[in-house]
What does this fold into?
Amino acid sequence: MNDGPAPDATDPDSQVPTWRSGTPDPTDGCVRNVGAAQVRVEEGTEVVPSDRLLLEWIDPRDPRRSEQRMIRDSWRVQRIQSEFVSGFDALENVAEAVTVFGSARVRPGTPEYEIARELGRLLGHEGFAVITGGGPGAMEATNRGAYEAGAESIGLNIELPFEQHSNPWLTLSMNFRYFFVRKTMFVKYAQAFVCLPGGFGTLDELFEALTLVQTKKVLRFPIVLIGAEFWGPLVDWLRGTLEAEGKVSPGDVDLLQVVDTPAEAVEIIVRAARS
Ligand SMILES: C/C(=C\CNc1ncnc2c1ncn2[C@@H]1O[C@H](COP(=O)(O)O)[C@@H](O)[C@H]1O)CO
It folds into this structure.
């Protein structure tokens, strides 16, 4: 009887994180998101994220590995599908919402943290639910502000190989295996995007949003960048190089609205929502 490919100890797909015993503390650095589950692991454990397994190159000339890939990819499609379904189910009642992106590395108590918190608070007072990546830094601060305003505060977290926890200021918390599924939720349930200063993650999310608006996949969708000093040089480059060289159309860069304060950002969003 053929039971399919034998388990392979060197195959990351067969890695199952082991639970660590003890009192759970989601901030102790030993928690990893594995799909919808949160798993406490031995300190320093790297859990291979689902995105990496999905995107991993496998040599088709190795018949055993390529057969395994076929079976695993078919299974993965079911998982991806189920992730879409649970995301759509959980978020279907979200009314007006704003998705906020920003650095995971901002520390509580800093001016940047307080700006994000104020943004969450103001959006909440205007009746918007706030959606973030659910992690630390600017995400936490924005969720915190929204939570303090009594608004819906949503965190869509992602499986990462290292330290991971959802921030505690959420009224709805989800964890995704796949970046592209999570990104769909960021766009589908929001009427506007706000970007606070951030790194690669924030830039990735910003440019995805910008491309969707540029190609009219989403309509009437303000994209507001808070922090003229931080974003100004990027916007100047987009205008001075991309637009000047004809790599984007005149007007494309104007899809970005740069402001300095959360109040200005919220005013733009409220105006757009009312129009
Ligand atoms: C690096 C640290 C924590 C990582 N945890 C994250 N949790 C959830 N979402 C995240 C995390 N890191 C990045 N993101 C997403 O990207 C954006 C921020 O990335 P940046 O590179 O810091 O700009 C953010 O909007 C999230 O959607 C620290 O302990």
Observations:
- The CA atoms of residues 193 and 223 lie 5 Å apart.
- Residues 1-24 have pLDDT under 50 and may be disordered.
- DSSP finds eight helices and nine strands in the chain.
- The beta strands are 31-34, 37-40, 97-101, 129-132, 153-158, 172-176, 192-195, 223-226, 256-259.
